[in-house]
Request: fold
Amino acid sequence: MTQSRDYGSDTHKERASAWFGQLRDELCAALEAIEDDVTGPNRTSGGAPGSFERTAWERPDEDGKSGGGGVMSVIYGRVFEKGGVNVSTVEGEFSEEFSARIPGAEKDPGFWASGISVVIHPCSPLTPAAHMNTRMIVTTQGWFGGGGDMTPVFPDDQETETFHAAYRSACDSFDPDFYPKFKKWCDEYFYLPHRDERRGVGGIFFDELNTGDWEADFAFTQAVGRAFVEVYPKLVRAKMDADWTDEQRRQQLIKRGRYVEFNLLYDRGTMFGLKTGGNTEAILMSMPPEVIWP
Amino acid sequence: MTQSRDYGSDTHKERASAWFGQLRDELCAALEAIEDDVTGPNRTSGGAPGSFERTAWERPDEDGKSGGGGVMSVIYGRVFEKGGVNVSTVEGEFSEEFSARIPGAEKDPGFWASGISVVIHPCSPLTPAAHMNTRMIVTTQGWFGGGGDMTPVFPDDQETETFHAAYRSACDSFDPDFYPKFKKWCDEYFYLPHRDERRGVGGIFFDELNTGDWEADFAFTQAVGRAFVEVYPKLVRAKMDADWTDEQRRQQLIKRGRYVEFNLLYDRGTMFGLKTGGNTEAILMSMPPEVIWP
Reply:
């Protein structure tokens, strides 16, 4: 990773965290519009459209070295059985265990991190669950990371292609190597070795992105966020009015169990959050609302 | 840990694995008798008594160094929504990562392990879930480990006391230090730091038990297994005919989420099993049948 002198300056931090908030607003609005527009089966929330409720949280400051907090936005609706959109901006010091493993934190454990994290579990087994996350992290170095991926219960080639095309397009305008590299990274990351199964149909995943040009890296991170806001609601709308069977629902609840297994056994973000004093409710907002392990 | 010359001999291995099979038979019979005797609310399996179904599995032997397998016994009943009783006897070589952390495996990665593992999720939120496990492990050293603990949704002092009394009695006939030591170990082990919650009301937990006297250690391990077979069915019978409310059921499904979080985030046995080529279905039989994260 190249380290340029002002990569991760205060101005950069402010602009990044403001963007994550803006992206949250745009995404929540797009999902709430879906709640209003659905005409198909309404089996939850008494058939009323859901809307996001926001809860702010602060990072506990036991040692005088921590700070920041976040806002958790949660929806329980008739299309989205449970959806969480979290933004947070925190700073503090990594534990020794973490410092050794994080770029630029080996000698100075201080860090700053801001990001948005999204997990959507739709009611309908025909509508894919989705995850999106982008973040900026600053230690003595600085970088962006994130991505987005989709987890349908019943994969559909056209839907998968549309999802990937959105990310390919976002990537290609920055670097022709990004999409193939980040798609592969995503496939390798969202994999359950104990099941020999992929979590879903992939998307992109990137981390420790620092080309030396903060503006370009920030613009790319914004493009990744925008791609999700553009493509995912469109894919939900395509199937949200279709009815489903009890057996399809059952398959969905089983598939959600794999999602839980991945997040608790392997996901770095979950572990990172739980071990760095993150907000447990916000982190585990990714858990599906209802799951079976038959 | 003291190492006596013949601790973990072939005869010891045979006697231990035979015992784990016998304990499985006794426990399954006790639980099936409960399925027959219940007169209270029958909301599952069409109201018919459940019985255990057995499935044998073999450990994959990709490198010619692995062997063994196990038998998974599963019940879906009207008292026990899902219960799993697994016995297994496996041998092979630990990975480098594991060898460094396991007594007696630092220089020679070969191991043999046999054990029984039990997880019971009752239908009724008034009836506690329970876990029991005992095992014998042989590397260049040898030892026993295990314990049992209970996870009620609505803790009940008398029930908790009866459960603990059974283990205290099993412990005290061997060593007056065992119960306080193993109870504390259990309390510390079955704890969710990210929630600052205990998983349940405890029980006992012990590991790397090798007093130098294999006969005594084996007898103690048998006593721990017998204590569970005697006390848990009695506690289930005390409440199994009582009806419950939808709200109590909801609390149960939430509590089960904590169980999942513990097992996937912290449980050594789950990790050990998944990383040493154990049978995924058998290991994840511990997952509750239905869970919510509202």
In short: The first strand of chain B starts at residue 53 and ends at 58. Chain B is about 40% helix and 25% strand. Chain B touches chain A at residues 82, 193-195, 257, 260-261, 264-265, 274, 280, 283-284, 287-294 (CB under 8 Å). The mean pLDDT of chain B is 92.
